[in-house]
């Protein structure tokens, strides 16, 4: 049968037929897998060898196929391959990390899970040592041991160890290490199958923790928990169960629960519950009655839960209970409360109704029935809105009810209800609350209302009344305003608007101080205190408020200041709480103006009276001093006494006037109250009246019980002394016998000192106690009128005490005595004393006359300073002392014209040879004789003038006076003019020409002192004595002399400190010797201004000098602030050093701040013409010293200065060039705002070597810096080729260059020709030497590099040797020598030619490179500004020469 068609499967017939065909043509086939199908349908695979069959002739007559059944082998191979593939996929896709190693411990397998788990990819792991690269150091030995055991054939299972991921995250691995074997069963490695048990271990730990927590929870649970086993024996009994029942855990464990702890009547039911739980049927909320150990009945709500083991087998029952004994009681109480609540709703006095979710009425109490006349039966079940609410409010009420159904409560919703009759409207204020069922769901709404019909009517009536009251306040004819608790205005009526000129809209809601100027802080504080008292409930009647009226068209003609007399009353809300203050007042501006005019009139009259009275006093003193007649002397003394009393009266009237006009100023400072009282008592104890009789009666004892340990008070010493003088004087005048006792108490609670002055005098009637502190008031009886005085002492005393924030009170009984109590505040030692200086503090006249030696000693500057320090006060400073220490004295600023005409006499002492001139200005001439008589006694020349014009004429005549003495009676403009002339026009400070003013705090002097910085230097009261005037003049002149001497010393010291560092100037002042020092680690700035010359050409010399002064002056100021030493100059560099004084902390930062300020200042000063600066900055040590003899200078030198100078020369304009040391100390942060830091690379510094440098470029210079960089780069690029060309001898012209090149070319060609000839000669001579012929080549006669004579000589020599002897050996020797010589010459020629060619090639290449560099440099040049065009000619010349030489 046909093999193919009968026995081969259809799909393989073609391939089999092809194999047979090939075999039939002699092409045999081996190992062809032939699939066959058996007769029974079994499939087989045969491995066939198809061999050609031949006959005896060798003809192919068929094919023989020899096969092998490989069906089972294929199946086994396929299965093996499948298993291998499955195993590989299993390993790769396994959910466990699997790795393999070879016998050397290197990784050979690394599956995907291992990669994802540890973060190392397969490529990263393969070939690396497992232990060394992937195992923690702590476990390397144990893991290595396990792997070695596996390599020895001993496998390890469940070995736990940690591995760390690529991100250092710890993973716990459970490893099985299995030996890996080869085909011959040899061990080839280890396969490790792991398991990531990190989570399992965490879960185990968590389960353990949960189990522990559960045990603790059971034990500490707030519910009773017990457990039983299947036999009913107790296995669990927690703390709460023990607490409730009283049985401890030890008493219950192992005992039968039902038989021992359950009451007999409940045992069967409890037993049934436990049995059901043991069968898996759990029971919940079973009420279990129990009896405690103390026989107390308890009810526990029990849940019985089946307890199972890990296999699910029931092992017992756990019962979790809840003690509901109290809960049951509460539920009973709740039921009782619910019943009570139902009764309350029904009987409540408020209307209450309820609806369900459909809006139907479910609740309707008795009050609703009373209001609406609908009974509960009539309302129940009916829709509330549709039946009981008016249409106007039905929609709003419906919204409220719907909101309540959604769980949103509504409070205080107002709506009307109509009664059953329909003729009465009832207003209801309702609160709607959702009503919820037991499950928490909303089942309706309950509304509790309030009948507000009458309340609303009352509210409307109250609103109407309030509106009427508001209109009344607004239209009232009195000013009314109100503030709230924060002092913000809430009321402002029309009268306030009219008076103040400020509309209501501008002030409502703002603080009340908007009415006052910024300078009126004292008035603001006073008003605030009044309002503060009113806010605490204390009404304040009759207080004054002053403010400036806003100028309007209506008020333009009125006075600017307004005075209101107000009363402040607390404003209450409906609950009675204070919510603000209402002030109702009266405009008393005109009344106050009249009072001020009256007081001004009194002050003017008093002031005018003082001048003639003072003249009478002075003249009477002068006459009595020279009067020899006793009778006339007594009369003059009486005149002096009367005029003195009259002067005291006028002074008191002026004091009262200044107090009432609020012009009394106090100079407060800490003072000793006990000392003040002691001095007053000592003074008055010996005082006499006008008749010379002692004021204090002999039968009166004055006792001072004040101790010296009183705390200090903050007060004006003079005014407080005046108060106690008046009080003690009154006590002495009105006490004829008995005692006067002065005592003091310290009130720590109020921080006050109370001084009590108690006498046993005539007393004061009760009806007069309220008036005694008023001016010009005295007790109106015969006794009172018998004592002198006009009643001003107590008025002045009260004003002074109140100005000190104190109080003065009196208690008196007629005929028994009086007690005056003065309370003054204690000085706060935690705060600095705030002094309020008086313009003209008046002091009592000192009657004591000092001796001349004492006066001189006191007037010296040293003793005056020491005295001031002992008293704790400061000496008055002159203008020059108050100004900056760097400024010179004012005397140096006198204009040149004044300097030519005025000379200042130097008086080192008052007793010098030159007379002392005093310019006396007095318009009245009343005290001229007194002043002259007093001052001539000490050798003073008095020049008297009566007007300012005369004074100015005197000043302009040549010599300035040593002192100016003038009376405040001179008209006010004249006072100001004399101050302006001395202080402003002539620039004379008080230290040059002091001024003494004779005045009693007149307004003219006060204004002058406040207006001008330089006011009077000394004030003398009008009632001065000649001795006091002499003392004042001497003191002032001595102080002037001290100031002049100190000014000269300060000037010299200042010049020394400016020229030298402070520590050097101090050394020079202390010791005069050579100064040489090393300054370690200082910051050194080397700065140069490069365009002073161009600035002077552009701006002119004067403008340039002005700019230089301003710039260098700014540098001086900055240097002084930052402790930087500066060496300033225009032509030479500016050197700044910080750290020279030994304090080198932050010295570099200070220098950089200095640089930043200088750069900013130069930009501000020169906006149009910029100053170009270069700066070099270095940190290191320098040497310094005083150099020179005639004019020594402080000079710096050393390597650091050289470095700073060198880097300054290469600094871009406007930038700072830093050394590497400065950059290292500065760090990365640039201390100059907006600046950038650039690396400038290496540079060569002489005497130092290579140094890396940096450039700080300010923000304003960055554009210029980029242009500078391009220019520098272009210069650097041109520098190399230009330098190389400079070394090449420059030809005279282009033609000379061409001739040089032609000559060079000719020499090369000649060398080549000589080489060829030499090679030919060498070849021919070699042939002659080998054939031993005697023929001499013809070209030996040619040019071969030797002279013809030399060649001829050699030829003759060869010929003679040959013909004479026939000795060829000698000829051969000569020829060989010549050949060697020629070879040497040829070699030298070749070498020379090669060197020439190489030089030409190198020169050409170098010239090409130079040409390229020059072209690149020119391209860069073309991108810069026009200033770079100056290099164009250099470039063109260079380019021509390079092109010529290259060709």
Structure description:
It is built from 47 helices and 43 strands. Strands 36, 37, 38, 39, 40, 41, 42 and 43 form an eight-stranded mixed sheet that branches. Strands 5-4-8-7-6 form a five-stranded antiparallel sheet. A five-stranded antiparallel sheet has the order 10-9-13-12-11. By secondary structure, the chain is α+β, with helices and mostly antiparallel strands. The chain is 46% helix and 22% strand. Helix 22 (589-626) runs antiparallel to helix 23. A hairpin with a 5-residue loop joins strand 39 and strand 40.
Could you outline the blueprint of secondary structure elements for this entry?
Layout: H1 3-7, H2 13-24, E1 29-37, E2 43-54, E3 60-69, H3 71-93, E4 98-102, E5 107-110, H4 112-118, H5 122-125, H6 130-134, H7 140-151, E6 156-164, E7 170-181, E8 187-196, H8 198-220, E9 225-228, E10 234-237, H9 239-245, H10 249-252, H11 257-261, H12 267-278, E11 283-291, E12 297-308, E13 314-323, H13 325-347, E14 352-356, E15 361-364, H14 366-372, H15 376-379, H16 384-388, H17 391-405, E16 410-418, E17 425-436, E18 442-451, H18 453-475, E19 480-484, E20 489-492, H19 494-500, H20 504-507, H21 521-535, E21 540-548, E22 561-572, E23 578-587, H22 589-626, H23 630-660, E24 669-671, H24 673-685, E25 700-704, E26 713-715, H25 717-733, E27 738-747, E28 752-759, H26 782-785, H27 793-803, E29 807-813, E30 817-825, H28 852-859, H29 861-871, H30 879-882, H31 896-901, E31 916-921, H32 928-936, E32 940-945, H33 948-955, E33 963-967, H34 972-985, E34 995-998, H35 1003-1011, E35 1018-1020, H36 1026-1059, H37 1062-1070, E36 1076-1089, H38 1092-1099, H39 1101-1122, E37 1124-1127, E38 1134-1138, H40 1147-1165, E39 1173-1187, E40 1193-1197, ...
Parallel strand pairs: 25-27, 31-32, 31-33, 33-34, 34-35, 39-41
Antiparallel strand pairs: 1-2, 2-3, 4-5, 4-8, 6-7, 7-8, 9-10, 9-13, 11-12, 12-13, 14-15, 14-18, 16-17, 17-18, 19-20, 19-23, 21-22, 22-23, 24-26, 27-28, 28-30, 29-30, 36-38, 36-39, 37-38, 39-40, 41-43, 42-43
